[in-house]
Structure formats: C-alpha cells, structure tokens
C-alpha cells in the first residue's frame, strides 16, 4: 500500500491558485523528489500533508487512510524554515519534541542517546540552540525529525547549511532510514542531489503537476539517441541515412570529440561497429539528459523537442 496518495488537491489563496488539481503517488520505501521552482506550490502541498493548512478540495491518503491528526505520529517533517527553540538546551528540546510525537520519556531518552552517538555529538546535551552554528542546529533538527522512527519522512532542503562532510553524513543517514523501511519525500532545488538520491520524482510548475514517474523512466523519456565519441583523427564519413554529425571539436593534437545522433532505431552498438572501421575510438557514451536539463526545459515551457535539440548540440 502506498504511504501517500495525493488525489486532486486544490488550494486557492484569494486570487492566487497555489495548487490546481494535483495528484501524486508516493511509492513505498522510496526517496521521492518533489521538484519545482520557487512559488510552484511545493510548500503548500507539504503543509497540507502535515495538516498545517487544509486543501480546498481533493484528499490525501496516508497508508490507505484519509489524512487525520493521529498521522502526526508516523510523519516526520524537516521544514525549510527551521523551528528550534533557541533558548532551550539540545537534550531538553529533543526530549520535548519526541514526547510530542507520542514517545514515552524512557523511549525518547534511549533514542536520543543513540542519535547523538551516531552524529558524534554526545557532549551537546546541555548546549543551548542559540550557541550552535547553523550546521550544528541542522543536525539537531534532523534528529528531531526522525527520532520517533516515522514511516513517512518529509525533508525540505535538508542539506541547507551543511558543509560537504556533514552533507555526506546526512545522506548516509537518509539511505539508512530508507533501508529500514521509511519512505522519504525530498524537496530540493539541488538537482545533483536528485540525481544521486531520488528513485522517483514529480515536477510541479505554476500550481500544476507536469511530470511524474521513476527517475530512470523520466530520463529514458527524453533520450535523443545522441552519443559522444572521443577518437583519433577526424577524417571519417558516416552514412548520412543512418547518422548526423552534430558537433566536432579538438581535444588535443589529433584527438577529437564528436557528437553524433543515430537516426531511426539504430542503437549505440551499431554506431560503435560502424566507427571502428573508420577511426580509432578512445571513449564512447550516450548523452542522457540530466535532471537539471529536464527541469529547466520543462519549467521554461520549451517542450520535448527543444530539450532533445539542446542535448544534441551541447
């Protein structure tokens, strides 16, 4: 059963429609990228799922049940606008937030100790939040989000404020949570993070969902059958009925890079066979679109053909 189903959700603020009949399915034990430019409607949807605001129409189902207040105990939410109490000590704060999520004091204390050890911050217990750096406070906020072992975790820009070392640490913990059965909704503008972490994605733009699916399938959808070849010598002629040379440049003396589009249903293996008879091939790879390519093209409204043309010419 899907951890989360969003069915036809609409939300209007005065003259502004924040969400327009949005439906999304979050697969179980996945890392789901919720993508979109600023103002697209992502934050509104996240707030509806967390019952901070209500939708005007549509419904949200959590593990097959209509969303209700009790679901707060199985949802963990890390907001982009961090919400720690600055005057409270780290240990007291984590204990308080854990009990709000339904944990007993005994269970909360045991889990807090485990997480503080995981992040190697046991000596932070009596530190006040206001005395922590942004990155340190982020660790505390992340722990408070996952302390009650939620089945559904919503992370809004979770790497904000982290240096590369701590970003890698958080990535490791996110993957551990997924391996232990959690489903994670991941909202971010960092497309390199989407590439490395997400299994599925949905793209919202101007209040509407314009794309959804497994990341691999989405990228397959925008393939242009274009290949990048590094080779020795540029004096070769591929048959024009089968291939088009889109671009060629010099890498160094005698070594060239060529962008070649195969026509029709011709595959990469056939292109390699044809090239081997004509030139000395050093490297060969298909030019697949990145999530950044797809995001930018669709948000700009350029469409499939424009994206494929961009990949062929890049």
Give an account of the 3D structure.
The protein has ten helices and 14 strands. The strands form three sheets. A six-stranded mixed β-sheet has the order 6-7-8-3-9-10, with helices on both faces. Strands 2-1-4-5 form a four-stranded antiparallel β-sheet, covered by helices on one side. The protein has helices spanning 42-49, 90-100, 105-118, 134-146, 164-179, 191-197, 215-221, 268-276, 291-299, 303-313, and strands at 4-13, 16-26, 31-35, 57-62, 65-66, 75-78, 152-156, 183-187, 200-205, 208-214, 226-232, 243-252, 255-262, 280-286. It is of the alpha/beta class and 314 residues long.
Layout of strands and helices, then pairs:
Blueprint: E1 4-13, E2 16-26, E3 31-35, H1 42-49, E4 57-62, E5 65-66, E6 75-78, H2 90-100, H3 105-118, H4 134-146, E7 152-156, H5 164-179, E8 183-187, H6 191-197, E9 200-205, E10 208-214, H7 215-221, E11 226-232, E12 243-252, E13 255-262, H8 268-276, E14 280-286, H9 291-299, H10 303-313
Parallel strand pairs: 3-8, 3-9, 6-7, 7-8
Antiparallel strand pairs: 1-2, 1-4, 4-5, 9-10, 11-13, 11-14, 12-13
Shape: elongated
Mean pLDDT: 90
* Secondary-structure class: alpha/beta
End-to-end distance: 42 Å
Q: How many strands, which pairing sense, and closed or not: the largest β-sheet?
A: 6 strands, mixed
The percentage helix is 25-40%
Please write the CATH class name of the largest domain: Alpha Beta
Radius of gyration: 24 Å
Question: How many helical stretches?
Answer: 10
* Fraction in beta strands: 25-35%
Question: H/E element string?
Answer: EEEHEEEHHHEHEHEEHEEEHEHH
Side by side, the strands of the main sheet go 6-7-8-3-9-10
Low-confidence stretches: none
Quick one: CATH superfamily of the largest domain?
Answer: P-loop containing nucleotide triphosphate hydrolases
Q: What CATH architecture of the largest domain do you see?
A: 3-Layer(aba) Sandwich
Got a strand count? 14
Please name the CATH topology of the largest domain. Rossmann fold
């Amino acid at each position: 059963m899907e951890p989360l189903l969003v069915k036809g959700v609409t939300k209007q603020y005065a003259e502004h429609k924040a969400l327009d009949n949005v439906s999304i399915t979050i697969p179980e034990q996945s890392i789901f990228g919720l993508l979109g430019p600023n103002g697209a409607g992502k934050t509104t949807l996240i707030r509806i799922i967390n019952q901070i605001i209500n939708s005007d129409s549509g419904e949200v189902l959590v593990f097959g049940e209509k969303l209700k207040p009790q679901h707060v105990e199985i949802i963990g939410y890390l907001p982009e606008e961090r919400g720690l109490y600055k005057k409270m000590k780290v240990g007291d704060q984590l204990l308080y937030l854990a009990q709000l999520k339904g944990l007993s004091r005994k269970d909360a204390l045991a889990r807090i100790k485990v997480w503080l050890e995981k992040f190697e911050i046991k000596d932070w217990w009596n530190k006040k939040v206001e005395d922590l750096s942004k990155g340190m406070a982020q660790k505390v906020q992340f722990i408070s989000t996952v302390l009650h072992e939620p089945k559904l975790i919503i992370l809004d820009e979770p790497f904000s404020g982290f240096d590369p070392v701590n970003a890698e640490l958080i990535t490791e913990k996110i993957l551990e949570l997924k391996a232990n059965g959690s489903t994670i909704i991941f909202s971010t503008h960092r497309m390199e993070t989407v590439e490395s972490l997400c299994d599925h994605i949905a793209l919202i733009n101007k209040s509407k969902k314009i794309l959804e699916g497994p990341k691999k399938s989405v990228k397959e959808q925008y393939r242009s059958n274009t290949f990048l070849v590094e080779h020795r010598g540029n004096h070769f002629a591929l048959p024009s009925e089968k291939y088009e040379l889109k671009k060629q440049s010099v890498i160094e003396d005698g070594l060239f890079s060529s962008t070649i589009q195969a026509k029709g249903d011709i595959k990469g293996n056939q292109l390699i066979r044809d090239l081997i008879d004509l030139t000395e091939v050093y490297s060969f790879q298909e030019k697949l679109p990145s999530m950044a390519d797809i995001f930018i093209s669709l948000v700009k409204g350029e469409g499939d053909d424009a994206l494929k043309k961009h990949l062929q010419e890049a």
